[in-house]
Specification:
The structure holds 2 protein chains of 2 kinds. By secondary structure, chain A is an alpha+beta fold. Chain A has a single domain, classed as 2-Layer Sandwich (Mth169, Chain: A), CATH 3.30.1280.10. Chain A is 34% helix and 25% strand. Chain A contains 2 helices and 3 strands; from the N terminus they run E-H-E-H-E. A 3-stranded antiparallel sheet of chain A has the order 2-1-3, with helices on one face. Chain A is elongated and about 50 Å long. By secondary structure, chain B is an alpha/beta fold. Chain B has a single domain, classed as Class I glutamine amidotransferase (GATase) domain (Rossmann fold). The termini of chain B are close together.
Chain lengths: 83, 228
């Protein structure tokens, strides 16, 4: 089963890349833009057909390694082809 | 005095630390590769600076899950001393041996300069034994992700327990107060038992007057004396 994991810095954690992009957008006339955040996506495949097992594994690896819960939030999205 | 220095792929201060330790103790430290499952019996483990795994995922995140880190955690759990410098500090945080996180410098630039640091000595620690409260030392920093962050509750606990070891401090020559945006000007923190220290400044780079100063020499020498 394929998954995408979207990881963003938590609200209140400095996101200089998001801030720089926001400023650039504002400078280019997109004056209604705000709250620009930059995150990352990790896509992976779990060799399992049991969705609950696969999801449990992905959640565990997020908590143990892929995400730092001090500064980041995450969401796990099953990929389209498996929906 | 037995010191073990761990090299991860991308560590680049491991040799500098080795040279500093040799200069102080007259003995070569053990250098081990991160794939090792055993750490030699020692008084201090040092995780050196660098860019382990090219800072992939997050700084220190992949190194924190290296095979050797299990033994580093066991060593710390037995009350052993661990020093993480720069990337080593990031690894200690990712390994949950210390609390909080290090994020991108608020100024968005890699900062490489000499900074003034104020000693905060509230708990017993071999790393601080030599110093008095509010002593000022000078060490170089060189990092892109040295902006210490913890949520307000964690930060309060760290401050209440007196776990901040070093804070950035304005020097008499007007060097900037806080080079990276760290909350409460934090440059180094300790574990609850005072035996694990993570610090952004590089003591191993100030062990020779020709290279800028001897404060790093004093810091490492006094620590090693306490631990031997």
């Amino acid at each position: 089963m394929k998954f995408k994991i979207n990881i963003f810095l938590k609200k209140g954690v400095l996101d200089p890349e998001g801030k720089a992009i926001e400023n650039a957008l504002l400078n280019n006339g997109y004056n209604k833009v705000n709250d620009v955040r930059v995150g990352k996506t990790i896509s992976l495949n779990i060799k399992s057909d049991i969705k609950s097992d696969a999801l449990e594994q992905v959640t565990l690896m997020c908590k143990e390694m892929l995400v730092n819960n001090v500064i980041e939030d995450f969401e796990i999205v099953p990929s389209e082809e498996d929906k | 005095m037995r010191v073990t220095i761990i090299t991860f792929p991308g560590s680049n201060c491991d040799r500098d630390v080795s040279v500093a330790i040799k200069k102080i103790t007259g003995k070569n430290p053990s250098n081990i590769w991160h794939q090792e499952n055993e750490v030699p019996n020692c008084d201090l483990i040092i995780l050196p600076g660098g860019f382990s795994y090219g800072d992939y995922l997050r700084c220190g995140a992949v190194a924190a899950h290296s095979p050797v880190m299990k033994e580093v955690k066991n060593h710390a759990a037995r009350g052993g001393a661990v020093l993480g410098i720069c990337n080593g500090f990031q690894i200690l945080l990712e390994a949950k041996l210390l609390e909080g996180a290090l994020i991108r410098n608020s100024g968005l630039k890699f900062v490489c300069k000499r900074v003034a640091l104020k000693i905060n000595k509230q708990i017993n620690s071999p790393f601080l034994h030599h110093f008095k409260q509010n002593d000022i030392i000078h060490l170089p920093i060189a990092h892109n992700e040295g902006n210490y962050f913890a949520d307000s509750e964690t930060l309060k606990q760290i401050e209440d327990k007196g776990l901040v070891a070093l804070r950035y401090h304005t020097s008499s020559d007007g060097n900037s107060f806080n080079p990276n945006g760290s909350v409460n000007n934090i440059a180094a923190i300790l574990s609850d038992n005072g035996k694990v220290l993570g610090m952004m400044p590089h003591p191993e780079r100030y062990v020779d007057n020709e290279l800028g100063g001897l404060d790093g020499f004093e810091f490492l020498k006094s620590t090693l004396e306490q631990l031997s």
